[in-house]
Amino acid sequence: MSTTRVTELDDLTRINHALDLAAKALEAFTPGEVAARMKQGDDPLTAADLAVDQALLSALPRDGEGWLSEETVDDPSRLDCSRVWIVDPIDGTREFVMGIPEWCVSIALVIDGKPVAGGILSVANDQRMVGSVDDGVTLNGEPVTCTTRDDIRGALVLGSRSEVKRGEWSPFFATPIAVRNMGSVAYKLGLVAVGLADATWTLVPKNEWDVAGGAALVAAAGGAVMGLDYEPVMFNQAKTLMDGFIATAPGIAGATRQLITDVQGR
Q1: DSSP-derived secondary structure for the chain
Q2: Which of 77, 102, 153, 219 is the Cys-Cys partner for 183 at CB 3.0 to 4.6 Å?
């Protein structure tokens, strides 16, 4: 077995172990019954976010590897690392606080800026999504891929609940797609990766930790992940706020790009 292969399998083992530790840390908390305080940007923060952050930090990075987390003060030394772990301890904290089952733990391994492996744990829905670009993706241990849809008509597209509320998705309701709004960027991406939705996108800025884990899984499942310039998304940037992203099943990538272009041109 090649040295590269051993490293890849070790990465997936670390991701699964980290998700185990995250699940254990979350046992002390009941979604919908968790106190939260507001941090800068009017985003909620709970003791659960911090507990999961520490669990992931204890399991993932090794010497020479970088770390970027929503709940850890950013260390610029990550920019000098080839291998970087990008995590969101609880993506969808607002839903977690409200008891809405649309939150998850998100992990990504980025090598030279490219998302190559990831893991998403949705405790509320009993879903564990893990994979790498070399090994594919599993849902609760079973191999899965993106959908094989090749017609955007009727495609299930997951939209952001907050973006829908602000009216940003209104132009898409007149197009032939089916939009379902929900929380957690990472969870939406995970659902696309495991074939439970056809696409998701956001045309407004999102942080790297919101996107990286799910982007790694979509890529690993054969899907397309791109920025708003339609170029491949890159991570571990000095500026962690991304302009937005588009993620789709492979057969509708071109049609999705055209749809968004048409809607924006109106």
Answers
A1: --HHHHHHHHHHHHHHHHHHHHHHHHTT--TTS---EEETTTEEE-HHHHHHHHHHHHHS--TT-EEEETTS---GGGGG-SEEEEEEEEETHHHHHHT-S--EEEEEEEETTEEEEEEEEEGGGTEEEEEETTTEEEETTEEE--------TT-EEEEEHHHHHTTTTGGGGGSSSEEEEES-HHHHHHHHHTTS-SEEEESS-EEHHHHHHHHHHHHHTT-EEE-TTSSBP--S-SS-EES-EEEE-GGGHHHHHHHHHHHHT-
A2: 102
Q: Is the pLDDT of residue 78 over 50?
A: yes
How many angstroms separate the first and last alpha carbons of the chain? Answer: 54
Q: Provide the percentage of residues in the chain whose pLDDT is more than 70.
A: 95
Q: What tokens were used for 119?
A: 């893991």
- How far is the CA of 167 from the CAs of 8, 154, 164, 225, 228, in angstroms? 42, 21, 5, 24, 19
Fold of 3-144: Fructose-1,6-Bisphosphatase; Chain A, domain 1 (3.30.540)
Structure tokens at 212: 């990286």
What are the pLDDT digits (tens) for 131-159? 999 999 999 999 999 999 999 999 999 99
Does domain 156-264 sit in CATH 3.40.50.1860? no
